TrEMBL record:
<dbReference type="GO" id="GO:0005737">
    <property type="term" value="C:cytoplasm"/>
</dbReference>
<dbReference type="GO" id="GO:0005524">
    <property type="term" value="F:ATP binding"/>
</dbReference>
<keyword id="KW-0805">Transcription regulation</keyword>
<dbReference type="InterPro" id="IPR009057">
    <property type="entry name" value="Homeodomain-like_sf"/>
</dbReference>
<dbReference type="GO" id="GO:0006355">
    <property type="term" value="P:regulation of DNA-templated transcription"/>
</dbReference>
<keyword id="KW-0547">Nucleotide-binding</keyword>
<keyword id="KW-0010">Activator</keyword>
<keyword id="KW-0804">Transcription</keyword>
<dbReference type="InterPro" id="IPR027417">
    <property type="entry name" value="P-loop_NTPase"/>
</dbReference>
<dbReference type="GO" id="GO:0043565">
    <property type="term" value="F:sequence-specific DNA binding"/>
</dbReference>
<keyword id="KW-0963">Cytoplasm</keyword>
<dbReference type="InterPro" id="IPR003593">
    <property type="entry name" value="AAA+_ATPase"/>
</dbReference>
<dbReference type="InterPro" id="IPR058031">
    <property type="entry name" value="AAA_lid_NorR"/>
</dbReference>
<keyword id="KW-0597">Phosphoprotein</keyword>
<keyword id="KW-0238">DNA-binding</keyword>
<feature type="domain" description="Sigma-54 factor interaction">
    <location>
        <begin position="177"/>
        <end position="410"/>
    </location>
</feature>
<dbReference type="Pfam" id="PF00158">
    <property type="entry name" value="Sigma54_activat"/>
</dbReference>
C-alpha cells in the first residue's frame, strides 16, 4: 500500500480556492506511482478542511486514482515547536510503517520545522521516501545524501568516549533523596536510568513509601523537566467528574460547564502526568486512559473532536495490580501499557540505614516550623530513641514516622526526645508491632480453593500429630464441632491415619 503523508500548507488552501494545484494536489494527482491513501496532517484553517478534502477527492476520482484524501486534526500550539511536531510525526509514522506499506513524505508543505523533523524521522528511523514539488508543478524524488545510522553511530561513539573520560555526572534531581540503604540505592539507580527514557513508569509500594517524591525526581531528571508535572490522586476523584478532570470538557457539556476546560492530559502536554493510586480508577475511565496512552489522543467531555497530546505517564499504587487483573477489576491491556518501567519502593522496615537521616531531616523541619512559637525550645533526639525507631515496623512508613515525630515534639516536656516520648507518640502501638500479613503472589490462574485446602491440610496434620492421631482431640484443637467433621475434611483432603 502506497501512502502519501503531508502537512497542510496555506498555499494548498489558497490554490484550492482558485481551483489550482499546489504541492499536495500535485503529488497526489501527478506522481508516477498512484497512491492508495493521502494523509494530510493539519492544525490550522479548520474551516476549509472539508472543502479541501472534497475538492481533492473529486480530482482523484476524475483521474481514476485509487487514493482517498483525509485530513487529520493535530493538536499543535505552534508550528515551529520541534518537540511537539516530532511527537506528532513519530506517532503517525509509527502507525503507518508496516512491512506492506510504502510511505512517501511531502517535504514542500508545512513549516521548516515540519520539514526538518520529517527528514530526521523518515530517514533515520522509518526508511521513508521523500517527495517535493516546484512552482511549475513538477515532482522531484528527493535523495538524502548520507546515511543517518552510520553518521549517528560515529557521533555517539565520540560523545560516549568524551563522557567516560570526564567521569560520572548524575542528575541533581535525586540528590536530596534519602538513600543510605542498599534497597534505596537500587531504587535510585533504576529511577535515574528510567528518567532519561520516554517509557511510562509504574511505582509500586506500600502507603507512605515516597512514590510521589520519586515521581517528582524522575520528571525533574527527564528531558521533559522544562514542561509541567501534573499530579492527581485517582482515589480522590469524584466519580462524576473523573472524565472532565482528566480529559477536559467543552462549554455546555453538563450543568455547570460554563466554559471550555482543558483536562490534566492537555495541561501536561509535553510534560508528565503522575497518576497516584491508579488502581482506584473505574473500568470506564481505564478504557479512556488506555486510548490516551496508546494513541496519544483524548476527547473532551461533550466534544466530538479528538486532540493529540504528548504526555509521559507515571502511575503509582499500593494495591496488587496483578491480583486486580486476575479478578477482572483492572484491565490487563492497561496494566501492560503502564507496567514498562516498574520500580518497587521498599517499606521503611527494610530501610533501617535510612532512618537516622529521616529523623534528622524531619526534626530540622519540625523545629523550623515550631520555632515561630514564642518560647519554643528546639528538640534533639537521643541515640536510644533512634534505636527504638529503627526497631519498629512502621506500617505507615515514612509518613507514619513524620507524624510520630510531630506528636513527640508536641507532647515532650524536655529538649531531648526519649524512648518514652516516641512510644507515647506512636498511634496504636500494639497494631504497629504486628507482623504484616503474608499474602501469596496473586497471578492469572491463581486457585484460591487450592490455597485454602493446602492451609487446611497442614493444620489437620499438625493437630493429628499433636494428639497422636486422636480425631476427637484433634477436632477440639481445630475448633470443630465433632470428630465427624474432621473425618469429612480428611477424606476430602486425602489424609490417612493408622487409627
Amino acid at each position: 500500500m502506497k501512502i502519501l503523508i503531508s502537512w497542510l500548507g496555506k498555499t494548498d488552501i489558497d490554490n484550492m480556492q482558485a481551483n489550482e494545484l499546489a504541492s499536495i494536489a500535485t503529488l497526489a494527482t501527478k506522481h508516477a506511482q498512484p497512491f492508495d491513501k493521502v494523509l494530510i496532517l493539519a492544525n490550522a484553517w479548520e474551516e476549509h478542511w472539508q472543502t479541501y478534502e472534497s475538492w481533492l477527492n473529486k480530482r482523484l476520482a476524475v483521474l481514476h486514482r485509487p487514493a482517498t484524501a483525509e485530513i487529520k486534526h493535530q493538536s499543535l500550539s505552534s508550528p515551529t515547536d520541534y518537540q511537539a511536531v516530532a511527537a506528532i510525526m513519530q506517532r503517525n509514522l509509527q502507525a503507518l510503517c508496516r512491512a506492506d506499506n510504502q510511505i512517501y513524505i511531502n517535504l514542500t508543505s508545512g513549516t521548516p520545522a515540519m520539514t526538518a523533523v520529517s527528514v530526521l524521522l523518515g530517514k533515520g528511523i522509518y526508511q521513508c521516501n521523500f517527495l517535493q514539488s516546484a512552482r511549475d508543478n513538477t515532482i522531484e524524488d528527493v535523495r538524502i545524501p548520507f546515511d543517518f545510522d552510520a553518521t549517528y553511530a560515529k557521533a555517539a561513539l565520540s560523545s560516549i568516549s568524551a563522557k567516560v573520560v570526564a567521569g560520572p555526572k548524575l542528575s541533581s534531581a535525586f540528590d536530596d533523596m534519602v538513600s543510605e540503604s542498599a534497597a534505596m540505592q537500587a531504587v535510585k539507580q533504576k529511577a535515574q536510568k528510567l528518567a532519561m527514557t520516554e517509557l511510562p513508569a509504574l511505582l509500586l509500594g506500600e502507603t507512605g513509601t515516597g512514590k510521589e517524591v520519586l515521581a517528582t525526581a524522575i520528571h525533574a531528571a527527564s528531558n521533559r523537566s522544562a514542561k509541567a508535572l501534573k499530579t492527581v490522586n485517582c482515589g480522590a476523584l469524584p466519580e462524576n467528574l473523573v472524565d472532565s478532570i482528566l480529559f477536559g470538557h467543552v462549554k455546555g457539556a453538563f450543568t455547570g460547564a460554563n466554559n471550555d476546560h482543558a483536562g490534566l492530559f492537555e495541561q501536561a502536554d509535553g510534560g508528565t502526568l503522575f497518576l497516584d493510586e491508579i488502581g482506584e480508577l473505574t473500568p470506564a475511565v481505564q478504557v479512556k486512559l488506555l486510548r490516551a496512552l496508546q494513541q496519544g489522543e483524548i476527547t473532551r467531555v461533550g466534544d466530538s473532536k479528538t486532540r493529540q497530546v504528548d504526555v509521559r505517564v507515571i502511575a503509582a499504587t499500593h494495591r496488587q495490580l496483578t491480583a486486580m487483573v486476575a479478578e477482572g477489576t483492572f484491565r490487563e491491556d492497561l496494566f501492560y501499557r503502564i507496567a514498562v518501567g516498574v520500580i518497587e519502593l521498599p517499606p521503611l522496615r527494610n530501610r533501617i540505614a535510612d532512618i537516622p537521616d529521616f529523623v534528622k531531616i524531619f526534626l530540622e523541619d519540625i523545629n523550623s516550623v515550631h520555632s515561630k512559637q514564642p518560647g519554643y525550645e528546639s528538640k534533639i533526639i537521643s541515640n536510644s530513641a533512634i534505636k527504638f525507631i529503627e526497631e519498629q515496623l512502621w506500617p505507615g512508613n515514612v509518613r507514619a514516622l513524620w507524624n510520630a515525630l510531630n506528636r513527640a515534639v508536641l507532647w515532650a516536656d524536655n529538649a531531648e526526645l526519649t524512648v518514652k516520648d516516641i512510644k507515647d507518640a506512636i498511634v496504636e502501638t500494639s497494631h504497629s508491632a504486628e507482623k504484616p500479613t503474608v499474602v501469596p503472589e496473586l497471578v492469572a490462574g491463581f486457585d484460591i480453593q487450592q490455597y485454602i485446602d493446602g492451609i487446611k491440610e497442614n493444620l489437620v496434620k499438625a493437630a493429628l500429630d499433636k494428639t497422636a492421631g486422636n480425631k476427637s482431640k484433634a477436632a477440639k484443637l481445630l475448633g470443630l464441632a465433632n470428630h465427624q467433621t474432621l473425618a469429612n475434611w480428611m477424606k476430602q483432603l486425602g489424609i490417612e491415619t493408622e487409627n
